[in-house]
Amino acid sequence: MLDRRDFLKLGGATAFAALFGGCDRIPKKIIPFVIPPENTALGESLWYASACRQCPAGCGIVVRVSEGRAKKIEGNPLHPVNRGKLCARGQAGLQALYHPERIGRPLKLSGPRGSGKFAETSWEEALSILLTGLKKLQAAAPASLLMLTEPMRGHRNLVAARFMRAFGSPHRIAWDPFGQDALLAANEAVFGIRDVPEYDIANARYLLSFSGDFLETGISPVHYGRAYGQMRQSRPTVRGKFVHFGPRLSMTAANADVFLPIAPGSEGAAALGIAHVMVREKLTPSAAAAASLWAAGLSRMTPEAVGKATGLLPSDIEAVAHEFAGNAPGIAMAGDGAAGCTNGTYNLAGAALLNALAGNVGRQGGISFPNRLAAFSRFGADAALLLPPPESGFASVRDSVEKMRKGTYRMALLSGSTNPAFSLPAPLKFGEALLSVPQVVSFASFLDETASLSDLVLPVPTFLEEWGDDIAPAGHAGDALSMLQPVVDPFRDTRQMPDILIAAARELGGAVAAALPWAGFRECLEKSYAGMGVNLEAARRDGGVFPGKTPAPRTAPKAQRPSLPVAAEAEFEGDPARYPLFLHVYPSIAHSDGRGANLSWLQELPDPVTTAVWRNWVEVNPKTAETLGLADGDGVVVASPFGSMEAFVVVHPATAPGVVALPLGQGHTRYGTNAANRGGNPFSLLPVKADRGSGAPARQSTRVSLAKAKLAGSLVRTVNVEGQWKYENIL
Amino acid sequence: MLRRRRQAALVASLLALLLLGGAAAASALTSQPIRYNHNVHVVAYKMDCRFCHSSAMKTASAGIPSVEKCMICHRVIAVDHPEIKKIAQYWKEKKPIPWNRVTELPDYTYFPHFRMVNAGIACLTCHPGMDKVDVAVQEQEFTMGFCLKCHKARGVSIECWSCHI
To answer: What number is the ipTM of this complex?
Structure first.
């Protein structure tokens, strides 16, 4: 038998064996590729050039790819729009690629429409549902097909347009909440040219901005941000001066040398006040133009009158006018805050007039109108489809909602990140109207509010997995075109929308098949560019074609003799007694209209002015807050005549008294766990109103009231590192 | 007598334990999802190591061949062999083969295969016996002395940060 000593010996030996017998290396796995991606070198990175589609600015990107996985997105140094720079939203494109909530298989409705309940299905079945619907429609009533997309450029717009035209439906609508309608209308009125100008900020000596947050949002924030840096620091003897007018201290306004707060919607009046002083003091190069403007009514825009309308000191208007005229070349630009009023065109025309008066059109450091379509002349009438004007399409969307209710459409094809069910004013009831369309097919990567209302969702790849081309709306002098190529193999079982349309056209036959005679979208692009003499291999290596020789800019016929913009006052909905505060909404730097809200990198990006993350807030002037008994961090219900939403108060000294500012972008009900249930949606407060001059959505057109409320959770603001920031100290 | 028997029992159980533990560890290292035979490929068919370990000339890692590369030949060669059938199954399912790692250097060393291979060092210098075995084994222990002996003999860098970067 074992005695105690033996038991201990045996026990010790067992422990030794167990410890050291098992102390060998645990085998690690080496998992090779099944099929290696082309040109893969283990542990070595490859860089692929493409273009960003996180916003419509169209920056060039290069993506670091290691062993078939995209690791980092950077700006393309060769691309004229961003010259190697890239913003946070572009960087976050990787998260869209790897997002766990991406749609990976076609989805078929498995509950009632709008319930958001879907079941996965095969591509064969999904495409047969699509084709059965299209074939039925083609035979009976082709004009009852609706295609509602985000604004598209390049050949994917060409494919969509040709498909709809050959199918026989005129109902092709592109919706963009931040369309440039007012800018186009203003330039048509002042310069006689309906186009987005090129602002040569880098070479300007003086910059006036009227609610134009060009450094954070707007047409091309990366391009203008870089140019702004050059304006301030790249010339040894000149540091350009920057003056910002607006109702809110945005990040752009905070960068200005002088920030002059003005009443919402009075940007046009402020610009004309400056113009008045320039003409009165004979500070303009063209006396004839000045005289005709003076006679047309500019004489009435005295600094005193303008001061009353805007809240500016007449002496500030005089001083800015003298500086602007004395520091040529200068630029006056106006942005979304001014364009989104019911007098948006008037506001933007005021800024345009200042450029014309100061003789800044067509000169270095001023504004110009490049001929961006010069390279595509061989497309004839189709050339305009490659770079359509960046309009909002608001009038068409409103019209389409009416038609949905009347039953005009029997089928709708939806695509894009502008998410109309989220980004249209709530009183329009877009979602409700969409439910009355018998068949709705969405092309989407994520189940946002709009895609959730469809009965078939076809998954599309993200921009990092796509073939394509693009022409940036601003930031280059001419025919610079970008090439998109897949930087990785598609992660999910997705197909590009143009590929689906081309395949559908082939099945439909006849005129539709003849209009899209390609095997796929890649072939369409390659044939088209080969026909233009573009070296595709070089273009894909460089990320596009960037000609060194600038095509001659277009001439602005009325630049020498501009006409005076027709004065218009901004209108605001809501009884001032019940709704005492003006509502100023602005696109969030991280989420824009809300499309970035599903990416956690963007959710945790602190807002540059308030440092808030993950939630919604409302900026309130300290005096207003005191009157209402509100403190920083309090929960409030923001109510307009059209709806209400919850938000946290951020007491901010640079918000004009009587104005509250709300960022757009949060307030999703769907769109994944990162986006949903993070406060209210400011679009739900907005009226269905448009800028009278251009038809653009007028977001700055309602008053609101604030009422204290107890909200769950709190607003998280990151630590401020710039030192003391308490408003008590600077008031 | 009783005492000696007890001692023998003790020694036997100790040995059994050690053997069991050791065998378990050894089998985990030498067993692979597919019994790939290095000897047949390298000696009988005279294939260059770099045909399969194709990134040895280009990158730090020599690389493990993709399933696709196996199937280039084994679509037609030895298709009835039970081990080849396993590869065909991986290929059919489009799944990678989960090989067990045999040779590994610690994280604090940098060993660029391409430097050695392009300098003309034969693979067998560091991987001796690989041409004689079927499933890969590591016969040579990669101690710093082993590396330095060769570096000194060839008059190449023995700076610390040549390898410890």
So the answer is: 0.76
Cα–Cα distance measured from residue B27 to residue A633, given in angstroms and rounded to the nearest whole number: 63
Instruction: Give which of B19, B30, B31, B55 to mutate to test A binding, by max A Cβ within 10 Å.
Output: B55
Domain count, chain A: 4
Answer yes or no: do A361 and A217 share one domain.
yes
SS3 A213: coil
For residues A251 and A335, is the Cβ–Cβ distance under 8 A?
no
One domain, residues B38 and B119: yes
Residues A404-409: contacts with CB within 8 Å, 24+ apart? Answer: A404/A146, A404/A433, A404/A434, A404/A436, A404/A437, A405/A433, A405/A436, A407/A436, A408/A144, A409/A144, A409/A145, A409/A146, A409/A171, A409/A437
CATH number at residue A718: 2.40.40.20
A204 and A333 part of one domain? yes
Pairing of strands A198-199, A367-368: antiparallel
Q: Which residue of B has its CA nearest to A67?
A: B63
Convert the pLDDT of each residue in A358-374 to its tens digit: 988 888 899 999 888 77
Q: Which residues of A314-323 are buried (b: 16+ CB within 10 A; e: fewer)?
A: bebbbbbbeb
Integer Cα distance of A659 and A620 in angstroms:
7
Instruction: Give the contacts of A326 (CB within 8 A, at least 6 positions apart).
Output: A283
- Please enumerate residues of B whose Cβ is less than 8 A from a Cβ of A: 6, 10, 13-14, 17-18, 20-22, 24-26, 28-29, 55, 58-61, 63-68, 90-91, 94-101, 104
A117 and A93 housed in the same domain: no
The CATH number of residue A168's host domain is 3.40.50.740
Task: Please tell me the predicted confidence (pLDDT) of residue B26.
Answer: 47
pLDDT tens digits, A701-712:
999 999 999 988
Q: Which residues, at least 6 apart from A610, have a Cβ–Cβ distance to it below 8 Å?
A: A617, A619, A650, A652, A717
Same domain, B114 and B144: yes
Among B2, B5, B6, most A C-beta atoms within 10 A, so best to mutate, is B6
Domain assignment present for residue A520? The answer is yes
User: Which strands form A145-149's sheet, in the order they lie side by side?
Assistant: A118-120, A107-109, A456-459, A439-444, A411-415, A145-149, A172-174
Assess if residue A539 is contained within a domain: no
Strands (E), A476-606: 481-484, 544-545, 581-587
| The pLDDT of residue B4 | 65
Domain holding A477: CATH number? 2.20.25.90
Question: Do B115 and B37 fall into the same domain?
Answer: yes
Residue B82, preceding peptide bond in cis (omega within 30° of 0):
no
pLDDT, chain A, mean: 89
Q: Is residue B83 included in any domain, yes or no?
A: no
Q: Is the pLDDT of residue B25 over 50?
A: no
In a domain, A73, yes or no: yes
Residue B68 Cα, gap to closest chain A Cα (Å) = 5
* Residue B109 and residue B134 in one domain: yes
The region that residue B70 occupies, defined by phi over 0 for left and psi between -120 and 50 for alpha, beta otherwise, is: alpha
Residues B37-73, buried b or exposed e (16+ Cβ, 10 A)?
ebeebbeeeeeebbebbbbbebbbbbbbbbbebbbee
Burial class (CB in 10 A: 0-12, 13-18, 19+), A288: exposed
A449 lies in which domain range?
107-178+390-460+495-530
B14 and A17 in contact by Cβ < 8 A? Answer: yes
Q: Are residues A173 and A219 in the same domain?
A: no
Does residue B143 sit in the same domain as residue B115?
A: yes
Return all residues near A292 (Cβ < 8 A) that are at least 6 apart: A561
- pTM, 2 dp: 0.80
| Residue B37, domain extent | 33-64+99-163
Tokens standing for A248? 């809110």
Q: Answer yes or no: is A556 within a domain.
A: no
Contact B13 A13 (CB under 8 A): yes
